[in-house]
Amino acid sequence: MAMAWDDTNVGGIEELNDPLIAHLRIRDHRIVLIQFPNVSNKFRQRSTKGQIPYIELDGEQVPDTHFIIKRLKKEFERNNPDVDLTEEEVALSKAYLALIENRLFWVYENSLAQDPSWLGKDEGIAGHFSKWKLRLFRLIALKPLKYMNQAKADLSALSSLLGENDYFFGDKPTTLDCSAFGLLVMFVYTPIWPTPIKRHLEENCANLVAMVERMREQYWADWDEACSNLSLHTEWKRARMIAESPINLCKMPSNALLKRDWQKKHVYLVQYPRCRTLPNLSPWSLKLETWLRMADIPFTNISNEFKKFSSKGQVPFIELNGRQIADSNIIIEALKQEFHKASMEPSAPSDQALAQAFTALVEDHLCWALFALRSKVGFEFLVSDDGFGRHYGTGMKKRMMTIVVRKLVNKNMKTRAQAQGMGKHSPDELHEIAIKDLKSISIFLADKPYFGGDHPTTLDATVFGHLAPFVYTPTPDGILTEHVKETYANLGQFIERVKEKGTLFQILAGLGGDLQHNEYEYSSQEGMIRRDDEYNNAY
User: Fold this and answer.
1) Distance CA 5, CA 185 (A)
2) Measuring CA to CA, how many Å separate 347 from each of 143, 359, 436, 459?
3) Segments in 390-488 forming alpha helices (H)
4) Which of 2, 141, 265, 525 has the fewest CB atoms within 10 Å, measured from its CB?
């Protein structure tokens, strides 16, 4: 029998502290009829990985919903809710799970951080804390974050996949339905979400609201009892199955722009200096520059010299018409409007939904798996001459810089990976996660030249930016590189296809791969043109 360790219930909804908790109880317990008692962690007890929820099964502790589900499917094979899914549906489920758990989840976290006061009410967690602790808790509110458009797009993508079905893949719920339910109940039953997002859900994604109500009715007959009594110990029975707000550009004063003598309708792309084996070690920089080439938008590259960042603290960012825009996804949306590049996205709503889901899989799941791997085994390539090492100077200065940068980068990577969650897993577990992601992406690509068909789209630029480092930089033990180039050969062929089309690597080879203290212009007619000749023979 599995024992599920949860946070204590709250009045309005169960296990509010982590919306992924609710779907644990549904996924492999309520829906598949696995018997289990609930155990409160009393806001103190956590797994060996520091996570909630976790289960205890056959004397063993299993944390993290991903690995819990995997273990339960193996242990209770006959109860597997995904057993009837096709290979293509499994790949789709993987992508949309990433969208829910690695994108929409953080919208929830940001909303809660903005105004956690609701948790201090009786409907929240007030019943479990003393008054002085609640006063302290209310001090953690953070400044609002701009995520409205992203959340609306993610919800629309889920709504498009669901369509008129009862559940995402037909008339029976699967793991994806449970994951969606676990988060969407927060939209429906708590006041945490900003009004525009809740309104979008109710007016444009009514089928998602209906699915939430359907699952609550069928699998949570004890909902009211659990919320009113604040108890994890309730009786439940399985019911019969029923047969844009515009992009906000950050206006910058002219003295804050890197490019003071800017031209109108010209993009100035600020990114890290070049590397030897691929144009940029940042997958977001590589994605954005690839997108600019695909969209045929003239732009100038500017090195950030490792010290120039956007007002959000991000790289890459662009300067356009005297304004600074940060975050690659927000940048691309702004550029599509400014240069009328709607053709860079699929025209069919269903294809747009798929692109949204696989973008989340690549950027918010696969990327972090590789990041966490490198945080555990080190990323010596970064400080090598093929990476950023040649920008550190020579002699003693270079040796000291290498030592300092290596230490700072390793600490930063471990901290960020732990905070995101991937860093809590072992290298073997991370390899497994990444390989499954690569398989799903490979299945979706199939034998098409690009993900959207014959012409590249934003998704192609995104996948290329994140997969190229798997091929052109070392991966731990070379396992993931082998899977991209050989096991899922269509992915390796895709990378080569985009590389040849953009001619970026070949141009870099001719220029010595340098962006430090230099600028480049690019247009499809003239390729990349070096604007200053002072460093022509530097390398």
Assistant:
1) 20
2) 36, 17, 28, 13
3) 395-420, 427-445, 458-472, 479-482
4) 525
Q: How far apart are CA 118 and CA 76, in angstroms?
A: 38
Q: State the angle between helix axes of 87-99 and 427-445 in degrees (0 to 180), rounded to the nearest 10.
A: 120
* Structure tokens given for 537: 């023979």
* Residue whose C-alpha is closest to residue 319's, from 261, 274, 271, 257: 257
529: Cβ contacts below 8 Å, ≥ 6 apart:
520, 521, 522
Q: Residue 52 and residue 43: Cα distance in Å, rounded?
A: 10
Q: Per the confidence metrics, is the pTM higher than 0.85?
A: no
DSSP element (H, E) containing 325: strand 323-326
| Interatomic CA distance for residues 511 and 506, integer angstroms | 9
C-alpha 522/C-alpha 292 separation (Å) is 9
- Report CA 157 to chain centroid distance, whole Å: 15
Dihedral of CA atoms 135, 137, 139, 142 in degrees, nearest 10, equals: -150
Beta bridge pairs of residue 63: 54
- Give the model confidence (pLDDT) of 204-236 as tens digits: 999 999 999 998 888 887 787 777 776 666 665
Q: Residue 276 corresponds to which tokens in the numbers above?
A: 């030897």
Cβ-contact 442, 491 below 8 angstroms: yes
Let me know the angle formed at the C-alpha of 163 by 95 and 153, rounded to the nearest 5 degrees.
Answer: 55
Are residues 451 and 498 in contact, defined by beta-carbon separation less than 8 angstroms? no
SS3 450: strand
Question: Mapping DSSP to helix (H, G, I), strand (E, B) and coil, where does residue 94 land?
Answer: helix
Tokens of 504: 């970026």
Q: Cα-atom radius of gyration of the chain, to the nearest Å?
A: 24
The β-bridge partners of 462 are: none
The residue count for the chain: 539
Contacts of 90 (CB under 8 A, 6+ apart): 82, 440, 443
> pLDDT tens for residues 247-300?
344 444 444 788 888 999 999 999 999 998 889 999 999 999 999 999 999 999
Closest CA to 303 of 334, 268, 266: 268
For residue range 486-508, list pLDDT tens digits in order: 999 999 999 999 988 765 544 44
Q: How far is it, in rounded angstroms, from Cα 46 to Cα 54?
A: 8
CA gap 177, 92 in Å, rounded: 12
> Between β-strands 54-57 and 323-326, what pairing exists: parallel, antiparallel or unpaired?
unpaired
Which 8-state DSSP code applies to residue 46?
-
Query: Residue 111, Cα to own-chain centre: how many angstroms?
Result: 17
Q: Which residue has the tokens 């970064």?
A: 382
Of the candidates 242, 236, 240, which has an alpha carbon nearest to the alpha carbon of residue 25? Answer: 236
Q: Count H helices and E strands in the chain, helices first.
A: 20, 11
